[in-house]
């Protein structure tokens, strides 16, 4: 997962996973108080995909279990493909694309987990963001967008976590972690105008104030989108600490980027399990992301 930035930024079976993600019921069911007022994002499918990833167990970058998971995730993205991460043996990003005008929009999350503590399953720290990205991709693939709308890329980053230890134990997390996002930015210069990163986005009691390094103008559009779909209460005013995360390489390349992260969540401990997550939070974030991307598609990113 991400690491706190102390200074301003300078520079189950896998077959069952595919079946569950492709064949779950309809989206959210009856609306509850405070629930989104639109229904374009399928929260039930996303929830099933979170559960299936957690069932795989600990899945650090480069592991056999993560590579098998990636094989199952790739066909769930539109035009899904792998992109190898240079100089990182066995690591690869999973990338999907809805064609359009460039520069476009990237929606991303990391799909690897921490290498420690032993038994860490990454329900919120990895699985939730991954599932929401995939279901947002499904929703946007069938959404009506205007002619000339920007390209949308969906990127599941490998190697976000360092190869050893915890992010907070690294002297240089930007280079020991964030391997997939740094590689993606380096491989696609000028291709991205706006980037949305999903990290801790599914916990109970979710609150997503602006992460301090995130681009304010883009975050304002996120909050407006949340209000438009009835999820405004999840996006309070104010800001949280600046975080080194997979949006940071994009910021360093001059791309507007935001990080959806509830930094209060215990994402580096064995407490990060399904029991701490909320389907309502998943739905709120998914509907908000779909809305903000459609807004950007209409106005230009």
Describe the structure.
There is one protein chain. The protein has 301 residues and is α/β, with parallel strands linked by helices. The protein is built from 9 helices and 10 strands. It has a single domain, classed as Zn peptidases (Aminopeptidase). α7 links the parallel β7 and β8. α1 runs parallel beside α3, α2 packs across α4 and α2 packs across α9. The two termini are 27 Å apart. The relative contact order is 0.20.
What share of the residues lie within helices? 25-40%
Q: Radius of gyration over alpha carbons?
A: 17 Å
Average pLDDT for all residues: 90
**CATH top-level class:** Alpha Beta
Distance between the termini: 27 Å
Biggest pleated sheet: 6 strands, mixed
CATH superfamily (homologous) name: Zn peptidases
Total number of beta strands: 10
CATH topology: Aminopeptidase
Question: Given the structure, what is the number of helices?
Answer: 9
Structural class of the secondary structure composition? alpha/beta
């Amino acid at each position: 997962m991400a690491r706190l930035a102390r200074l301003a930024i300078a520079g189950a079976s896998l077959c069952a996973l595919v079946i569950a993600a492709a064949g779950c019921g309809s989206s959210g069911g009856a609306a509850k108080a405070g629930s989104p007022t639109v229904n374009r994002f399928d929260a039930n499918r996303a929830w099933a995909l979170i559960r299936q990833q957690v069932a795989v167990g600990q899945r650090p970058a480069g592991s056999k279990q993560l590579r098998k998971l990636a094989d199952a995730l790739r066909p769930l993205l539109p035009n899904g493909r792998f992109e190898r991460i240079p100089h990182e043996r066995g690591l690869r990003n999973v990338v999907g694309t809805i064609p359009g005008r460039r520069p476009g929009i990237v929606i991303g999350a990391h799909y690897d987990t921490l290498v420690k503590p032993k038994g860490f399953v990454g329900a919120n720290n990895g699985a939730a963001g991954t599932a929401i990205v995939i279901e947002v991709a499904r929703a946007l693939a069938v959404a009506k967008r205007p002619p000339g709308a920007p390209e949308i890329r969906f990127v599941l980053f490998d190697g976000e976590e360092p190869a050893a230890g915890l992010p907070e134990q690294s002297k240089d997390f930007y280079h020991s972690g964030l391997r997939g996002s740094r590689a993606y930015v380096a491989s696609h210069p000028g291709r991205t105008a706006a980037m949305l990163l999903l990290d801790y986005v599914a916990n109970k009691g979710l609150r997503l104030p602006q992460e301090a390094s995130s681009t304010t103008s883009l975050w304002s559009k996120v909050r407006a989108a949340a209000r438009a779909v009835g999820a405004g209460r999840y996006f309070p005013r104010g800001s949280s600490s600046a975080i080194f995360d997979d949006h940071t390489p994009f910021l360093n390349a001059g791309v507007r980027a935001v990080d959806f992260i509830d930094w209060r969540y215990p994402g580096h401990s064995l407490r990060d399990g399904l029991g701490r997550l909320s389907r309502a939070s998943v739905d709120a974030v998914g509907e908000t992301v779909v809305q903000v991307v459609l807004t950007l598609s209409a106005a230009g990113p």
